[in-house]
Amino acid sequence: MITQTAPAAAERKRVAKVDVVGVPMDLGADRRGVDMGPSAIRYARLKESLERLGIEVTDHGNLRVPVPESATEAEADAKYYPIIKAVCDELAGIVEGVVRAGGFPLVLGGDHSIAMGTIAGVARARGRAPGVIWVDAHGDINTPLTSPSGNVHGMPVHFALQEHAVDPARMAFIGLRDVDEGEKKIIRELGVKAFTMADVDRLGMSGVVAEALAIVADGEHSVHVSFDMDGVDPQEAPGVGTPVRGGITYREAHLLMEGVAASGTLGSLEITEINPILDRENQTAILAVELILSALGKTTL
Q1: Residue 89 annotated to the active site
Q2: Confidence band of 72 (pLDDT split at 50, 70, 90)
Q3: Torsions phi, psi of 196, nearest 5?
Q4: What is the DSSP string of 233-252?
Q5: Which of 5-19, 168-182, 196-210, 265-279 has the lowest mean pLDDT?
Q6: Known catalytic residue at 201
Q7: Residue 18 phi, psi (nearest 5)
Q8: Distance between CA atoms of 105 and 227, rounded to whole angstroms?
Q9: What is the mean pLDDT of residues 151-165?
Q10: What are the φ and ψ backbone dihedral angles of 30, each rounded to 5 degrees?
Q11: Residue 101 DSSP code
């Protein structure tokens, strides 16, 4: 007798329609190049790969983002924040419309500051903020006062918690290994669940994903995954602006996405921080497409 397996469950829950939005944002970081991330992911045959899974794809193109040379930093403790916020507000409107129309928003970055817009749009459409799985080497929870650099891509979790009503009790970090002192204090005070790479080593990625989903999910389409490609080890994802050794392996990354897919709770996804200038033969963008497919239900059998 053949018993039903987890991949079969993931197959049943495959997303039917995906709406792609590119946000070529690089105002949130010092190092240039992540504005080309959306193009790199598309070049890695994102649309064709999704369509082979039987998924209908609508690509809304890229939002217009000012380049740093044409912009004003405004505030040194949160560089370019007014411009970043304006772009994120536009993104939020698009994401809200996609969710209300029954689509699945897939947002391509750009630096990680764009998460503020994605989360805001989902929250408006659903009437409450989603639970969030934040895959990253870094905490991204600095405030303008605690940030050593003033770069907004290190602050989107702070703004999501403060401005978009994300519940700290329904959020989980996965893959942390480079966290500022101020961030450590904030994470402890807020009680946000943080799975460092030491936790991944100890529990295994399967155990981490199970615990994270138990924290963040509370029903169908209730989870947003915000995936910074620097969460993956730089041997597998060299094309990122802030690589940190000792990260998530290729198989662990796929296991993470496969676990979320099998849960049937994923409602939105974004992939950020791909820098093609620093990549090797588009390796990081190709991996990003593979991970997107795993998150949306692709299985081996």
Answers
A1: no
A2: low
A3: -75, 175
A4: -TTT---BSS--SS-B-HHH
A5: 5-19
A6: no
A7: -120, 135
A8: 14
A9: 90
A10: -80, -40
A11: T
Determine which one of 35, 111, 138, 252 is catalytic.
138
Task: Please report, in range form, the residues annotated as the binding site.
Answer: 112, 136, 138, 140, 228, 230
Return the closest-CA partner of residue 41 out of 289, 293, 296, 237: 289
The two tokens of residue 236 are: 């597998």
Region 162-182: mean pLDDT is 95
Q: Note if 112 is an active site residue.
A: yes
* 140 catalytic per annotation: yes
Q: At 147, which amino acid appears?
A: S
Is 233 labeled as catalytic in the residue annotation? Answer: no
36: DSSP letter: G
Residues placed in the known binding site for Mn(2+): 112, 136, 138, 140, 228, 230
Residue 224 annotated to the active site: no
- Sheet containing strand 223-228, strands side by side: 56-62, 17-23, 104-109, 266-272, 223-228, 131-135, 171-176, 193-196
pLDDT recorded at residue 71 = 62
Domains of the chain (ranges, CATH numbers): 6-295 (3.40.800.10)
End-to-end CA distance of the chain: 17
CA distance to 85, 106, 201, 289, per residue, from 95 (Å) = 15, 9, 35, 20
Please pick, among 35, 96, 199, 230, the residue that the annotation labels catalytic. 230
Q: Residues 67, 84: contact at Cβ < 8 Å?
A: no
Could you tell me what percent of the chain has a pLDDT over 90? Answer: 83
Q: Is the pTM of this model over 0.90?
A: yes
- Does the structure show a pLDDT above 60 at 90? yes
228 is catalytic: yes
Give the lowest-confidence range in 76-80, 181-185, 263-267, 271-275.
76-80
Q: How many CA atoms lie within 13 A of 48 on its CB side?
A: 6
